[in-house]
Write a structure and sequence with these properties.
alpha+beta, Cyclic Phosphodiesterase, Chain: A, four-stranded antiparallel sheet, about 25% helix, about 35% strand
Length: about 180
């Protein structure tokens, strides 16, 4: 069954810079460049009635355009074997306000919170039993990674369809700044 998530897309030049980081790490499944995004909130499986309610709630969110910068690299989880490689987002109050507004809108619909702190990032690879040394080397080599700031003027609701070659994302709705 498809799953919903809310995300911010990035300009192609930022996606290009991120995909330039892709290296040979055994067990890494790199996210296709055109699917790189900042997940604001994972929702999960929903029915069409709930999706319609989510869209209506998100349409009421008001925000001004703001700029963000992609910078640094890391992995999740920290205490176990790495499963996800990511690039981070520079601390940004406006991004945090938008995420809180999204969370409040979903909670008002009865959708449970994720139960974890929001750490804005872009997933760049999923890892299957990687050589930890190569992951550490990737982090070390790219710890100064930074893109030019880019303007955020909208966010989107996506539906994710699992497939043999990874998930496919379909944009269901867009929500534009004031």
């Amino acid at each position: 069954m498809p799953r919903l998530f809310i995300a911010i897309d990035m300009p192609e030049q930022v996606q290009d810079q991120i995909s330039d980081l892709y290296t040979a790490i055994q067990g890494a499944r790199w996210v296709p460049q055109d699917q790189l995004h900042i997940t604001m909130r994972f929702i999960g499986e929903t029915d069409i009635h709930t999706e319609t309610s989510i869209i209506t709630a998100l349409e009421h969110i008001r925000f001004e355009p703001f700029h963000i910068t992609v910078k640094s690299t890391g992995f999740f989880p920290l205490r176990k074997d790495p499963q996800v490689l990511w690039v981070g987002i520079d601390k940004n109050t406006e991004l945090e306000k938008l995420q809180h507004a999204i969370e409040r809108s979903l909670t008002a619909l009865g959708i449970k919170t994720e139960g974890r702190t929001f750490h804005p990032h872009v997933t760049v690879a999923r890892l299957d039993r990687p050589h930890k040394e190569r992951v550490v080397q990737f982090i070390t080599d790219n710890h100064l990674f930074k893109t030019e700031p880019f303007e955020v003027t909208e966010f989107h609701l996506y539906r994710s369809y699992p497939g043999k070659n990874g998930a496919q994302y379909v944009r269901e709705a867009s929500f534009v700044s004031e």
